[in-house]
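User: Here's a chain of 215 residues. Predict its fold as tokens.
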Amino acid sequence: MLVLQGWSQEKATDLGAASNEQLNVHWAYGAYVPKEARLESLTGHQRAKLFVRQTFTTPGIYIKSAFLSLIDQASGKPYEWGGGLEGYERRMASNYGRSSIQNVFSTTGNAALQYEPRYDRCHCLGLGPRTKHALLRNFLTYNQTESELRPQFALYGAALGAGMLSSVWRPQTKLWTEGYHGVVTQAEFGMLSNWIGEFAPEIGRKLKLASASPR
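Assistant: Prediction complete.
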């Protein structure tokens, strides 16, 4: 009996570890699957858990919102929100709200289509092939087979919809202009974050070596 209980606990631990491998969210480049892990189609519960991590409990969305708000603050957009701390807080709330809404739309769309919402690191070698994989994965994703590529309909539909919706609270903005801005922002940040996510292990090792080397 004790042996069976021990085996059951060990099996549950292994399953928990395997599940966590499928739900990694990095603060700099978002949801990803490690190269050594098998890419598995997510359940509805896993998709919901990933949404919570991406939207609330991982600092990446807050860092992205803060960075975009700095750009808006420097360019004075929207002008009606003024400058200073109060203006920055409004821009921060606006950018976080738009990103959160985009996550809601993309999670719902990907779940309906059974599309893959995570970045999978390339099993290829070389700077060129890996860069190509990282950039293309911002526009293509797998369906439920985890082998057949499909256009990122849910991701870019969500970016368009969230951008258009943000025109409700952003003064002097047009519906389609904000939608277009959301799509462009997704394309730019998506390609950058995928590239960082692809080469993150190498970047981390080089930074460690640089910090450990004598000066």
